[in-house]
Amino acid sequence: MAWTAPRTWVTAEVVTAALLNTHLRDNLRFLKGLDGVVTIESGVIFDNADGDEFVRIPSLTTAERNALSPVNGDLIYNETLGRHDARQGGAWAGLTAFGSSVSAVPTNGTEQRTSGDHTGYRLDADPEAVFIEFSVPADFTSLTSAVVVIIGLASATMRLNFTSDYGAAGEVFNVHGESSADVDTSVTVSTIHDIDVSGILSSIAANDRVGIQVASDP
Q1: CB neighbours of 129 closer than 8 A, spacing ≥ 6?
Q2: What is the rounded distance in angstroms from the CA atom of residue 27 to the CA atom of residue 156?
Q3: What's the pLDDT tens digit per position in 23-39?
Q4: 20 to 30 A Cα–Cα from 98, which one of 40, 54, 127, 207?
Q5: Contact between 183 and 104 (Cβ < 8 Å)
Q6: In terms of C-beta distances under 8 Å and separation of at least 24 residues, what long-range contacts does 166-170 make, across chains too?
């Protein structure tokens, strides 16, 4: 049974069983999901059919999302980026697939260096390199972002080269290999910068072992 627009009753109107069944019984059954998928006019869908239950939240483009007056806790599906976005801490944040995320620190480099309590490897005008290793979680489905974190030792424009080798156990270590050369990156002294490297990880899959090299270009 479908939803019926609620009836506005008038004084002295004869209330019949048919009217009560249509406007009360049938609408209550619909709202409870007993007679089909409940769709709220805002775009929210509740399907509690036995065996394939789901909730579908509103789907918006990034532009439509940015036009909202959101509060922390809001959740949408971002059509533009193909992901769920949640409002937290006064800003929108993309939700990673199944909540999976990976953090990795450099495993090797030309010259070890610290910035405060941050430990890493130096990259400057001389040819120097940093190597990073990580494993992709078993529940990974798609890449939402990948960044290399750089802290500026001076304010300058760095020219960097990024390369990657990756594959799963039993595969050749560089079954996938990608690169991004001559990337000019402006850094500010003592400031943390996130450098996007998703372009050299276009084919990563669950359980891959990934190696990334970041090299300065004199």
Answers
A1: 109, 110, 123, 213, 214, 215, 216
A2: 66
A3: 888 878 877 767 666 65
A4: 40
A5: no
A6: 166/201, 166/203, 166/204, 166/208, 166/209, 166/210, 166/211, 167/208, 167/209, 168/205, 168/207, 168/208, 168/209, 169/207, 169/209
